[in-house]
Write a structure and sequence with these properties.
alpha/beta, Glutaconate Coenzyme A-transferase, 2 domains, globular
């Protein structure tokens, strides 16, 4: 009989994530964020974490909870804007931040999970990404204490490209809509954003899953991430709030 990858609780799933661990965390804005695993990590007390994620949650929710507790030492991300505490810690020199183009971040994660050590891309050519000097950490007086290094550049067919290293992390935290006990996962609509890529990049991938079924109950064509990339699963709380990042409504009598 195949062994189940399901564990009893989120706390058990993250129990071996210790101080200084690196994490790839799924989600895009507030969509597809593994909030229960993050909450369990907050409760565990682990600190000095190096987080790779498209963004860092919002104040008081998602990865924002780890930021509020000063548990994150470094963030690799594409977007800062919705989290005031993220911006404050970065500008005050409390947090190291590597900002990179969103597509480059996605490909660095995918490459890491595919065993590709590096790749060339035209994104960032002719900018500080190529030249180096992007602030990664500020000093308390506002000076740049750590800046990005210059990238290696090569020309292919008359066009210049910069070299980007792939990303591998100690752990990955992701959220899926459905999965079987073997770890095969399905992601609903926009939750299929960075979640599969983060799971691929993590040496130990942990998934919180809204619906868990037995082996053979998923249509193989619906599987977005094979179980080979997933080491642990935990059932998500069906009553847990799903937040909407920007709620837009039409007034009465508006256009149909």
């Amino acid at each position: 009989m195949a062994l189940s990858k399901v564990v009893a609780s989120a706390a058990e799933a993250v129990a071996d994530i210790g101080d200084g661990a690196s994490l790839a965390v799924g989600g895009f804005g507030l969509c597809g964020v593994p909030v229960e695993l993050i909450d369990a990590l907050v409760a565990s007390g682990a600190g000095g974490l190096a987080v790779v994620s498209n963004n860092c949650g919002v104040d008081g929710w998602g990865l924002g909870r780890l930021l509020d507790a000063h548990r994150i030492s470094r963030v690799t991300a594409s977007y800062v804007g919705e989290n005031r505490e993220f911006g404050r810690q970065f500008l005050d020199g409390e947090l190291e931040v590597e900002l990179i183009p969103q597509g480059t971040l996605a490909e660095r994660l995918r490459a890491g999970g595919s065993g590709i050590p590096a790749f060339y891309t035209s994104a960032g050519v002719g900018t500080l990404i190529e030249e180096g000097g992007l602030p990664w950490r500020y000093a308390p007086d506002g000076a740049v204490s750590l800046a990005s290094p210059p990238r290696e550049v090569r020309e292919f067919d008359g066009r210049r490209y910069v070299l980007e290293r792939s990303i591998r992390t100690d752990f990955a935290l992701v959220r899926a809509s459905r999965g079987d006990t073997l770890g095969n996962l399905c992601f609903d609509k926009a939750t299929r954003n960075f979640n599969p890529l983060c799971a691929m990049a993590g040496r130990v991938a942990i998934a919180e899953v809204e619906e868990i079924v037995g082996p053979g109950e998923l249509d193989p064509a619906s599987v977005h991430l094979p179980g080979i990339f997933v080491q642990r699963m935990v059932a998500a709380d069906p009553g847990r709030e799903k937040r909407v990042e920007k709620r837009t409504v039409r007034g009465a009598g508006g256009p149909s």
